[in-house]
Write a structure and sequence with these properties.
454 residues, alpha/beta, Urease, subunit C, domain 1, TIM Barrel, 2 domains, 16 helices
């Protein structure tokens, strides 16, 4: 197994840096940020500040400090579909500035062990909050899932996962109606977070009432904004063309009001969605995307062609012009929900998608939020402050403030001027461990080496 050199806990002073804390307050130029152990010890003006002894000084002149990023929808250990969770997915996330991740479906033992080792600083990885395997219908097509057919099977599955110490329960699209509600009730009894797809047999309004706290991929929102919602929940035809033909702005507005009032987070995975619906025209081209060199050969030669074949056969059956209009419609949905006060999370579904690369794709997701009409600050908040609020951890994460855990990204350019500047990473601090540019290059080089041979 490829091994990575871990950074030690740091005593670091970043000087003369512009702090973008993502709280909504204006950026603070020419600041000193001191990190001791795993916490931010002090933030003060650089003017007249003293330099502590025995501290590593990082010159932040003309650089910008933001909170560490979160990817709120990943799959680290997804059977044999996308191998290399420990060797590729987790280190690659960190190298691209992702210091926290919500794993939405992984094989149980590997993800629990990775969570433990990441928390102890023994592997190069973001901090992880995990569901273990997903709860799905009796004939689930997915790895890292538990098939359930009845309410009792769903209750037992929740109990088993909760007893093993998962952070939340995630449901998939095919879980039956009665099993879904049994899982929701068991989560309520155990005070465990309940999230995932809005299943095919469930209305978005029912999912809200059940206590589901996040919706993935806008599933349920499209159906709940359709005049054909009853037929769709009963098993009728879905898809881009059908959603566009039956779209009802009034129904969408009513649903948006309910989601906002109930504070139900949306994780729309817009980068993944665009890649899915336009998969026949958006070719994977390593000559145009140098980050693809980090994708293992098995992903490029086996997994991605298999995914593409399945998508073209089962999902992308509408004409291209219809799918293009639907991709634009998705951005409009996100903007209207956002304007109505619905909260959002940035997530990518990485690496379970064609060309969806851990870490790099999160930056693409932020760009899609801006394309939908979010300001760069609002887009940043979907990957910083909003995840911290959703997880109940704003006291520790999500903004740059004294006393918080030192999860930070140092950028060479201002992301508030151009959201694409989040890609211009000079250093990452994860739980107080400093990964400077050289250390990040070493991580990427090791991932690339592994990818060539696997």
């Amino acid at each position: 197994m490829t091994r990575f050199l871990l950074a030690a806990l740091s005593h670091v002073l970043i000087t003369h840096v512009t702090v973008i804390d993502t709280s909504g307050r204006p950026a603070k130029p020419d600041m000193n940020v001191e990190i001791r152990g795993d916490r931010i010890a002090r933030i003060e003006s650089s003017s007249g500040a003293t330099i502590p002894s025995h501290v590593r000084v990082i010159d932040g002149t003309r650089k910008f400090l933001i909170p560490g990023l979160w990817d709120m929808h990943i799959h680290s250990f997804f059977g044999d579909w996308v191998p290399g969770g420990r060797e590729v997915t987790l280190p690659l996330l960190l190298a691209f500035g992702v210091t926290g991740a919500r794993d939405m479906g992984s094989d149980l033992d590997p993800i629990l062990e990775a969570r433990r080792q990441a928390a102890a600083g023994r592997i190069v990885s973001p901090r992880l909050v995990v569901s273990g395997p997903m709860l799905d219908g009796p004939k689930s097509p997915f790895p890292a899932s538990i098939p359930v057919a009845t309410a009792e099977e769903a209750r037992r599955a929740v109990a088993k996962l909760a007893d093993r110490g998962v952070d939340f329960i995630k449901v998939q699209s095919n879980i039956p109606h009665d099993a879904y509600f049994a899982a929701a009730r068991e989560c309520g009894k155990r005070n465990i977070v309940f999230v995932g797809h809005v299943p095919d047999a469930i209305r978005a309004s029912e999912a809200v009432e059940s206590g589901q706290t996040s919706f993935e991929h806008l599933i349920g929102v499209f159906e709940g904004s359709s005049t054909a919602e009853d037929a769709m929940v009963a098993g009728g035809k879905k898809g881009p063309g059908r959603f566009l033909e039956t779209y009802d702005a009034r129904k969408e507005a009513v649903l948006a009001e309910l989601l906002a009032k109930s504070f139900i987070y949306q994780c729309p995975t817009l980068f993944w969605e665009r890649g899915q619906w336009l998969i026949d025209v958006d070719a994977i081209d390593p000559s145009r995307d140098p980050d693809l060199r980090y994708a293992p050969a098995s992903w490029r030669e086996k997994s991605w062609p298999k995914f593409k074949k399945g998508i073209l056969e089962e999902l992308d059956t509408d004409p291209l012009d219809v799918r293009e209009r639907f991709v634009a419609h998705e951005l409009g949905v996100v903007k209207r929900l956002h304007d109505a006060g619905v909260p959002f999370l940035a997530g990518t579904d990485t690496p379970a998608g064609v060309g969806v690369l851990p870490g790099a794709s999160l930056h693409g997701e932020l760009e899609r939020f801006v394309a939908a009409g979010f300001t760069p600050l609002e887009a940043l908040q979907t990957a910083t402050r909003n995840p911290a609020i959703f997880l109940g951890k704003l006291g520790d994460f999500g903004t740059v403030a004294e006393g918080k855990i030192a999860d930070l990204v140092l950028l060479d350019a201002n992301p508030l001027d151009d959201i694409r500047n989040t890609r211009k990473i000079a250093a990452v601090v994860a739980s107080g461990r400093l990964y400077d540019r050289e250390a990040l290059y070493r991580i990427l080089a090791r991932v690339e080496e592994y990818a060539r041979g696997h």
